[in-house]
Design a protein that fits this description.
Elements (H helix, E strand, L loop, with lengths): L11 H12 L4 H19 L2 H12 L9
Length: about 70
């Protein structure tokens, strides 16, 4: 599955502002819960497991050292 990795949000500044506003007034645990819920909602919106797996691999790339064994 090929992901869209170039800017694709029609109003990126507004989208970012909405994301920040959604976190206003939340503590760390609530903010983490919001992020988890948002991720699950967006995964459901995408629907296709291949696309979800490709996005997970792309997001994880370079974050942890992969085992060479």
């Amino acid at each position: 599955m090929s992901l869209i990795l170039t800017p694709n949000i029609t109003a990126p500044d507004d989208a970012y502002a909405a994301l920040i506003a959604a976190h206003e007034g939340l503590n760390k645990a609530q903010s983490d819960a919001l992020n988890a819920r948002l991720i699950l909602i967006l995964m459901n919106q995408v629907g296709a497991l291949g696309t979800i797996n490709a996005a997970l691999e792309t997001a994880r790339a370079g974050l942890v050292a992969e085992s060479t064994a």
